[in-house]
Structures are given as structure tokens and as C-alpha cells.
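Standup notes, structure subgroup. Blocker cleared on the magnesium ion input:
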Amino acid sequence: MPDGRLLADAASTLRAGGLVAFPTETVYGLGADATDPAAVRRIFAAKGRPADNPLIVHLADAADLDRVAARVSPLAAQLARRFWPGPLTLVLEAGDRLPPETTGGHPTVGVRVPDHPVARALLAAADRPVAAPSANRSGRPSPTTAAHVMADLGDVVDVIVDGGACVVGVESTVVDARGPHPVVLREGAVTREHLGVDGAASDAASPGTRYRHYAPRCQVLLAEQADAATTAAALSGGGARVAVVLPEAAPAPPGVEVVGRFGDPSALARDLYDALRRAEDAGADHVVVATVAEVGIGRAVMDRLRRAAAA
Ligand code: TXA
Ligand code: MG
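Run returned:
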């Protein structure tokens, strides 16, 4: 936990219209005062983010929800009680205190209360809603350590609050909670099983899912767990520089850099973006990633992996 003085300084920076990167349980966020249009515009400029892609607004406490939402549906109230603080973003009708910069000009707002002591202390000290996309340059893997933020945005952010590595590792689940049933717009750590809904996320519904995403500077290839090591070895034999992310038990192929190991799908979720960044730091042409079953958090992992592989 960073000391109180540092958090107080970071909160003052937010109040003064600055950019503060901070840890959450999912990934690091690039925060600015959600009610300050100029501050929010700095987020878009820093990330190179398309202006119509709305930001998630972060609150210290669910009791602050009516500061940012015009109407809290019964479903939203129920989901907030059950999953906040936690990796769930609720899409609701936006309140009139939020500028169009924050909502991307949409009539809705995505809101969440992060489950991280540093994030909550910072949000409480800032005493205002904080808009925060993932603290990566647009299109890159999300940052799960302060070093990842430094690598992408070190030259444009005013303060980076270091709270160690994020425990979840993939971004929050985004749910449209305006109607009677949750509609999943982005898969995350609050799973369809938790929410009691099935189906696949609709790409049309969440503006951000249209854009290129999660791509390191090397080609991402997916392989079944049993085939990942041999796929990597074959590529390496053909002369390419190859990195691989493998299950714990798989033997390391010769000539290939192992950039990640996972015991179960939540461990892969936690370490995936770090592994992708390690692969590019190792100068790999390709990174082969062993896949997981599409249940529970495995859906979020596979969603991110497919987007990374398509980029
Ligand atoms: O875990 C997270 O959600 C992280 C941490 C920092 O909280 N934040 C994050 O923000 O992932 P970002 O901007 O990288 O992704 C936000 C996603 C985008 O796909 C965006 O389109 C969607 O949420 N979103 C935000 N507001 C929305 C809205 N009003 N309606 C539909 N989708 C929305
Ligand atoms: Mg993002």
C-alpha cells in the first residue's frame, strides 16, 4: 500500500485535472476527474483512443451511484449489492453531471466500484467520480503492473500509483443493467455463470469491442494445450523467434522462450498480458498461447486471446 501522503498527492492531481494511473483488481486504470471535460480529453489524447469509445466511471462506494446515473434500475441495485466492490461494470442511463467526453456522446454510462484498497482510498480522497480506461496505449495489452503503465504512458501521465500486480488480470465484465435481465457486453471475471445468463457478448452493443485490442508487437497464435509446445518448436525450427505460454506441466520446447506458465484459467487471466509483453520484450516474432475451455473466466480469457490473435 503506497503511503497516505502519496495517495493524497495523487488525489490532488485528480482534483486539479491531472492524469493518475492507479491499480484496480482487474488492470491499471488511467484516471481523470469524470466531471471535467478537459481532464477527460487528456485521457483520449494520452491513449490515442477513438472519441466515441465511452469511459468507465469509478466510484469509491455504491452509495455514490446517483452522482453519475440518472436512473438505477432494480436489476442494477441488485447486481451492485451482490458484486460491488468487484470486477463488474454496470451500464445505466447517464446522469447530467457527466460531460459527453466521458460518455463518448452516448446516453448511457458504465460505472463500477473497484475491489482494490489503493483504488478505493484514492477515489475516496479524490471525492469525485473518476473516469478510467485501462492505462495502455489504445490497441495494446492492458497493463497489470506499474511497469507496464510506465512503458506505454510514462511520458504523458502525471502520477503512477504503484499497488503491485493486479490479481484478476483481465478487465471487468460489462453488463447493460437498464432492463430486467443482465446483457453481457464484455466478458470478465464476474462470469455468465455468476450472473445466470448464457449466450455470447454482442459486438454491436459495446462500442469498445469494435476496435483493435490487446495486441503486442508480435503475432499471437493460439494452440490447444497438448499442441502448444510442438507448435512453438516447429515455428522455431523454421527460423522464427518464438515465445510460448504453457500449462505448468508441459515440457519447455528447445529454442523457445517460455514467457508464462499457468495452472488454471484464472492464473492465465492474471498473467496473460504480462506474458504478451514479455514476448515482445524478448523480441519474439510469434507468441504461441495454450488455450483454455470457454467456461467461467475462461470465456474472458479466450475473448481477449482471439482479439489479440486477430490484430
Ligand atoms: O476492469 C476495467 O474495466 C478497467 C479498469 C481500469 O476499471 N477499465 C477498462 O476500461 O477496461 P476500458 O476503457 O479499457 O474498457 C471499457 C469498455 C469498452 O469496451 C467500452 O466500450 C465499454 O467498456 N463501455 C464503457 N461505457 C459503456 C457504455 N456506456 N455502454 C457500453 N459500453 C461501454
Ligand atoms: Mg482498454
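Discussed briefly. The radius of gyration is 19 Å.
Next: hand off to the docking folks.
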